[in-house]
Amino acid sequence: MALTHDAIRIHYVKSDKDLHFTDALAQNAVEHENIAMGNALVGCEECIIEGVVLLSDQNLEWDVFFWTRSTNLDTDADIDTFLDYIKFKQTEGRQIAGTGLWYYSWTNLGIPYKDEDQSEEFHVSLCNRSATSKNAGATGEVVVKLMVRPFPF
Q1: Helix or strand or coil: residue 16?
Q2: Nearest to 144 by CA among 73, 63, 68
Q3: What are the 10-residue block averages of pLDDT along the chain, 153 residues in total?
């Protein structure tokens, strides 16, 4: 079988700094968001998350969680829709020229993602693991970028 161009095409999906992850977050607090897949992935219920990039105003330790439905956390393990998570250590944050945004990145992940509620959204949570709180609003902006491949190829 020959590979087609679409078989290896990576699509980028990102949160909006003005709409997503805007709350203040104390240590271990979490904010849940549903991020639209975008036109390139319309009708795609399954994909592979190949990479996660996080841009942040603050250098904090982050966990980015993925869920298969918008109804995510549940004390009943049969109902909880946890899929996977990525940990970004504070020491992994990089800033250019000592100013501006902090950059974090994980690639070559291969996380199989299934949108079980068929909402055409990525169900993502951001958890602050730092003792320092994440700021709300303009001084605490965070953008999560996903690099995804549709599945099946």
Answers
A1: coil
A2: 63
A3: 54 97 98 91 87 98 96 81 96 96 97 92 97 98 96 69
Distance CA 96, CA 91 (A): 14
CA atoms within 13 A on the CB side of 84: 13
pLDDT of residue 3: 38
Per DSSP, 11 falls in state: E
With residues binned 3-state (H G I as helix, E B as strand, rest as coil), the percentages for the chain, rounded to 5, are 10, 45, 45
- Tell me the residue length of the chain: 153
* Separation of alpha carbons 71 and 73, rounded Å: 7
Neighbours of 117 (CB within 10 A): 16
Q: Which residue matches tokens 């994980």?
A: 106
Written in H, E and C, the secondary structure of 127-138 is EECCCCCECCHH
**Per-residue confidence (pLDDT) for residue 124, from 0 to 100:** 97
* Secondary structure (3-state) at 41: helix
pLDDT of residue 2: 40
Architecture of domain 14-150: Sandwich (2.60)
